[in-house]
Amino acid sequence: MSGYDDRDGKIWMDGQLIDWRDANVHILTHALHYASSVFEGERLYEGKIFLSRKHSERLLKSGEMMDMPIPYTVDEIEAAKQAVVEANNLTNAYIRVVAWRGAGEDMGVSSARNPVRMAVAAWAWGDYYGDAKMKGAKLDIAKWKRPSPETIPTSAKAAGLYMICTMSKHAAEAKGCSDALFMDYRGYVAEATGANVFFVKDSDVHTPLPDAILNGLTRQTVIGMLKDKGVTVHERHIMPEELADFEQCWLTGSAAEVTPVGQIGEHTFEVGALTREIAEDYEKLVRS
């Protein structure tokens, strides 16, 4: 397969559709040097982007939190995504919307005079964790910790927050794992590199309180689904030693969807009935 910079198709960039290979930026783009970038990852199912407007709304909020006002409205972002889907004749795909500080008059840490740019790309993408949906993903435990909200806007979907995710996922893959689980700055269980985590014990579901992690849209959707089923959901701080007591585990995210977890470090989990039920129900929901 060709690299992501060498494909046929169209990408929406700064208000117009351009050829995929022409969607480039200057080497002195501020985001490349100082991580002044926010993004959204979304899934297109049967021609419809799941929770599309919520993603667009969150993109704008992330930009605000990064002191980087994005010069497009929700409706304009929605139209851009639709244009990309139609131009590339896609029915089921992954959508990536990214906004960043471009090259301009500033080339230090300050970038207030540089334009905020935006692009939308889409491509066919299968299961994020491969065959883990059947047998359960295997997770390493990251050596890095998710940062305090006092150090960075942890509720923004910002590129800089993913630096330790890349490092941790590389380390996990080198050990034969699919991903890595983070603890937060206080030592509580936090999230995977690009997904929220859920656990099952005695028919109740437990998931980390999103006070230092991204409150994922898929996470919110799954919590709503569980409550509709009458399942008790505990959003709380979870200590790492509790991992030994949980029976089931799964990950949620726009890319990950609902993916069962079979192992985290030395701890193993069954791909149980509730995990499979939620995964199947989520699959039905996004395609309804």
Automatic annotation (TrEMBL):
The keyword Protease does not apply. Its cofactor is pyridoxal 5'-phosphate. Its EC number is 2.6.1.42. Gene3D superfamilies: 3.30.470.10, D-amino Acid Aminotransferase, subunit A, domain 2. It comes from the Bacteria. Signal peptide: none annotated. GO terms for molecular function: branched-chain-amino-acid transaminase activity. Pathway: Amino-acid biosynthesis; L-leucine biosynthesis; L-leucine from 3-methyl-2-oxobutanoate: step 4/4; Amino-acid biosynthesis; L-isoleucine biosynthesis; L-isoleucine from 2-oxobutanoate: step 4/4; Amino-acid biosynthesis; L-valine biosynthesis; L-valine from pyruvate: step 4/4. Keywords: Amino-acid biosynthesis, Aminotransferase, Branched-chain amino acid biosynthesis, Pyridoxal phosphate, Transferase. PROSITE patterns: AA_TRANSFER_CLASS_4 (PS00770). It catalyses: L-valine + 2-oxoglutarate = 3-methyl-2-oxobutanoate + L-glutamate; L-isoleucine + 2-oxoglutarate = (S)-3-methyl-2-oxopentanoate + L-glutamate; L-leucine + 2-oxoglutarate = 4-methyl-2-oxopentanoate + L-glutamate. The keyword Amino-acid biosynthesis applies. Belongs to the class-IV pyridoxal-phosphate-dependent aminotransferase family. PANTHER family: AMINO-ACID AMINOTRANSFERASE, AMINODEOXYCHORISMATE LYASE. This is Branched-chain-amino-acid aminotransferase. It comes from Aliiroseovarius salicola. The gene is ilvE.
